[in-house]
Specification:
9-stranded mixed sheet; binds flavin-adenine dinucleotide; 11 strands; about 30% helix; globular
Length: about 260
């Protein structure tokens, strides 16, 4: 069985105040870049499935050269191989073009029985790459996966999280799963893994390697555009220290204030 995990490199949201929103398109974001936190669950699930089914697992990322670091982290966690898809022609790619590049790479790498993605990215946040990828690969799409119950006989059974419960679904392989955070507890990279990742040869494939034309990538191949991009307005916060002679008195005053403000 062949498994692919899709890994995006995103800014560390803890550094959001530092992000220069006007330079996001130019890739000069001004924050530390990390593995998209949702994709850590995808990597972990890919690894668990590969251990259980003795499968190969490959991490693929569309991004600039610096996104190699996200792939090195994936290798340090245990992924067997990694591929970076990087080309100036992919700049200003929307979710569809990103999915197109990923699908072309998966096909070039010999296909996949299972593709595991995160639920969404913490920056672009469209949640559309996974479903577009499934469509382009002609694979079944399973979203909100919280448990892989079984993979056998050319099909997969998963539990999906619904608003008011869970459902168990069976689908034929190949399938693309987008996984939710409840699915597992991502492992930390091991010391040996970090050493292996530092030496790992990670190929970079260009648009030409993927056999895609100029009309299929970048702005030309995109179907959506960023009209505007701005940070939410800073919240005005007021701090009040509750004073009282004893903790009990302070708690009573706090309770009165919360009730008066209809917080509780
Ligand atoms: C017109 C336009 C121009 C843009 N220009 C730029 C630009 O110049 N530079 C830039 O950085 N972004 C740009 N973006 C944003 C970029 O297109 C999206 O971030 C990207 O398509 C992924 O979509 P998403 O972040 O919504 O991912 P989601 O759909 O929310 O991600 C779902 C899952 O798909 C997988 N995935 C998503 N993206 C990738 C990836 N890149 N590699 C591997 N797996 C992935 C991950 O597993 C992820 O958890 C642009 C977007 C638009 C619409």
């Amino acid at each position: 069985m062949k498994i692919v995990v899709c890994v995006k490199q995103t800014p560390d949201t803890a550094e959001l105040p530092k992000v220069n929103i006007n330079q996001v398109k130019a890739g000069e974001i001004g924050a530390t870049m990390i593995v998209n936190p949702w994709d850590e669950f995808a990597i972990e699930e890919g690894l668990l499935l590969s251990e259980k089914h003795r499968a190969d697992v490959t991490a693929i990322c569309v991004g600039p050269t610096q996104a190699l670091e996200a792939l090195r982290t994936s290798v340090a966690m245990g992924v067997g191989s990694a591929i970076l898809l990087s080309d100036p022609a992919l700049v200003e790619a929307d979710a569809l073009v990103t999915a197109r590049a990923l699908a072309a790479a998966i096909n070039k790498a010999g296909g996949a029985d299972l593709v595991v993605t995160g639920k969404q990215s913490v920056d672009g946040n469209s949640g559309q790459v996974s479903v577009a990828l499934a469509r382009l690969l002609g694979a079944n799409f399973l979203s909100g996966v919280v448990k892989v119950v079984d993979v056998s006989g050319g099909q997969i059974t998963v539990e999906r999280s619904l608003e008011e419960g869970k459902e168990t679904v069976t689908a034929k392989l190949p399938a693309v799963l987008s996984v939710a955070r409840e699915i597992n507890e991502p492992r930390y990279p091991s010391f040996m893994g970090i050493r292996k990742a530092a030496k790992a040869a990670i190929p970079t494939w260009t648009v030409a390697d993927l056999g895609l034309s100029a009309a299929q990538v970048g702005k030309a191949g995109s179907v959506s555009d960023w009209i505007d991009l701005r940070k939410p307005p800073a919240r005005a916060a007021q701090v009040e220290i509750i004073k009282g002679d004893t903790p009990e008195q302070q708690a009573a005053i706090l309770m009165d204030r919360l009730l008066a403000d209809k917080v509780i």
